[in-house]
Design a protein that fits this description.
With 406 residues, the chain is an alpha/beta fold. It contains 14 helices and twelve strands. Helix 5 packs parallel to helix 10. The structure holds pyridoxal-5'-phosphate (PLP).
Length: 406
């Protein structure tokens, strides 16, 4: 038998179930999300693979498109009722093609890992040989320009396919601040959530029609089932944002700021002496430090009001060194708040949101359990980006105005 209380709740359930706010329906996760928003607002994000999406991207991502099953591709689905998700996916494909100048696009990959698996599934037979950059050899932390034409010539010479994963610098390519691999590679893959500033997900681009069926079949039904239509809707929005003229300014500023940051990081050993893109590798071995310790550097922790500001970065391998990535190594870092050059201190929102990306590289010496950690009192390098005192208020204002949305 149901108690009167339970019956009353059940009777009310249909009303509140669909209409309650998150805070009403689930205060625990609402509090965690609020906490994360606060963290994003108050910490300096130095992680190269992260970004801040617009309200419009968040809205599309949180939309009713999450309810829809749409296995297949536009016009050829295994489910009825796909007319609106077809509109969304067709828009995403068309905008992605326009943005990157590609003949074909697949916008369904749920993640960067899956888009890359799809290429392997489509192009390689079991036991086939493939070659790529080892992480320790700069794999996804290469801060210099790539010569894609030359890579293609070499691939053609040896009879190989050339695949470029441009996940990190895709936003720079979209904004015209980086050479594009799309005309040269047999297939270009990218995540949509890094410098491209979209929702989490993947994208595949190619120009040869004979590869179309291979790639599409590798994604569905090869690796995935129903596409994440709400994410695809958000990709539509992000691609449109990247097609806007101000995205070019954003991309240009990202590169300029990374170069400026590299110049200002005096006393640190920047691998290759600087950067041509949005990231840099800082080898902390000469400082006898690991990446996780550098996050606690005092210079990166206080604003002009002496409030504590943490900076967050990820950790990566440095060449010739093996280490446990979760424990130490380098930091993979992005400096999102833009330093405004003199004379341009009243720039608009697009430039406020520009950033530079840095990759801080740590030493790998010592065992996993002997590395410096909490409470380590070895001398830390000053990782401040070197803001002059009169720049603190400006930076603080920008931080407050940066639209990090709930
Ligand atoms: C170059 C590159 N490709 C792919 C991925 C994997 O993407 P995802 O985390 O969406 O699986 C990453 C992750 O950082 C990356 O840096």
């Amino acid at each position: 038998m149901t108690s009167p209380t339970t019956s009353a709740k059940t009777a009310n359930a249909p009303d509140s179930f669909f209409t309650a706010t998150l805070a009403e329906a689930d205060p625990e996760i609402a509090a965690a999300i609020k906490g994360e928003l606060g963290r994003q607002r108050h910490e300096i994000e130095l992680i190269a693979s992260e970004n801040i999406v617009s309200r419009a991207v968040l809205e599309a991502q949180g939309s009713v498109m999450t309810n829809k099953y749409a296995e297949g591709y536009p016009g050829a689905r295994y489910y009825g009722g796909c007319e609106w998700v077809d509109v969304a996916e067709t828009l995403a494909i068309e905008r992605a093609k326009k943005l990157f100048g590609a003949a074909f696009a697949n916008v369904q990959p749920n993640s960067g890992s899956q888009m890359n698996q799809a290429v392997f599934l489509a192009l390689l037979q079991p036991g086939a040989t493939f070659m790529g950059l080892d992480l320790a050899a700069g794999g996804s932390a290469y801060s210099r320009a790539w010569d894609f034409k030359r890579f293609r010539e070499i691939a053609d010479h040896v009879g190989a396919y050339l695949m470029v994963d441009m996940a990190h610098f895709a936003g720079l390519v979209a904004g015209g601040a980086h050479a594009s691999p799309v005309p040269h590679a047999h297939v270009t893959t990218t995540t949509t959530h890094k410098s491209l500033r979209g929702p989490r997900g993947g994208l595949m681009l190619w120009n040869d029609e004979t590869l179309t069926k291979k790639f599409n079949s590798a994604i569905f039904p090869g690796l995935q089932g129903g596409p994440l239509m709400h994410i695809i809707a958000a990709k539509v929005v992000a691609f449109a944002e990247a097609l806007r003229p101000d995205f070019k300014i954003y991309a240009k500023n990202v590169v300029e700021n990374a170069k400026a940051l590299a110049l200002r990081a005096q006393g640190l050993d920047i691998v290759s002496g600087g950067t041509d893109n949005h990231l840099m590798l800082v080898d902390l071995r000469p400082k006898g430090l690991k990446g996780n310790v550098s996050e606690k550097a005092p210079g990166a922790r206080r604003d002009h009001l002496q409030q504590e500001r943490h900076s967050v970065r990820s950790r990566n391998a440095v060449r010739d060194v093996r280490f446990a990535p979760g424990h130490a190594g380098g930091n993979h870092a992005r400096f999102r708040r833009r330093r405004i050059p003199a004379g341009r201190r009243h720039d608009r929102r697009s430039s406020q949101r520009a950033g530079a990306i840095a990759r801080w590289q740590g030493a790998a010496g010592g065992s996993r359990h002997q590395g410096a950690g909490e409470g380590d009192d070895r001398q830390l390098p000053d990782l401040s980006v070197g803001l002059a005192p009169d720049e603190f208020p400006i930076a603080s204002q920008l931080i407050q105005r940066t639209p990090t949305r709930p």
